[in-house]
Design goal:
132 residues; mainly alpha
């Protein structure tokens, strides 16, 4: 019947949206976990980007905008995505935990991020010095 077809379409559409949210979340899941996990993966990504810059494979020095970029990333991508995951309830009670971690990590980054970027730079230089 047409009503059943419309219902299936609506359910399929909802399922597709949830799957899209899950795929997006899997790409940035470190931002919705404990601080030490976020910081570990953030450092790995920074080091990769900074090494590319130092090797001439990237035009921009990521250290110049890393601090502010992370805040924008949380505000305009991660936290809205965590809210969508919370609203659809796909992870049950854990959905709210992911949102809490994202907000907490954003706040911690706002407080500590500038110093952390400086620590990344010192660590990079130390690594390079030991490789020579």
């Amino acid at each position: 019947t047409p009503h059943q077809d419309a219902s299936l379409s609506s359910d399929d559409c909802k399922a597709t949206i949830v799957i899209e949210h899950l795929i997006q979340a899997s790409d940035v899941s470190h931002t919705m976990q404990h601080w030490h996990i976020y910081k570990t993966w953030n450092e790995k990504f920074f080091m990769e980007c900074y090494a590319a810059y130092k090797a001439g494979r990237a035009d921009c020095d990521p250290s110049k905008n890393w601090y502010k970029g992370e805040i924008g990333f949380f505000d305009f991508y991660v936290i809205p995505l965590a809210k969508k995951l919370d609203n659809c309830g796909v992870f049950g009670v854990s959905s709210h935990e992911y949102l809490n971690y994202a907000q907490s990590n954003r706040d911690e980054w706002a407080r500590e991020g500038e110093g952390i970027v400086n620590e990344y730079l010192v660590k990079y230089e130390d690594i390079m010095a030991t490789q020579q």
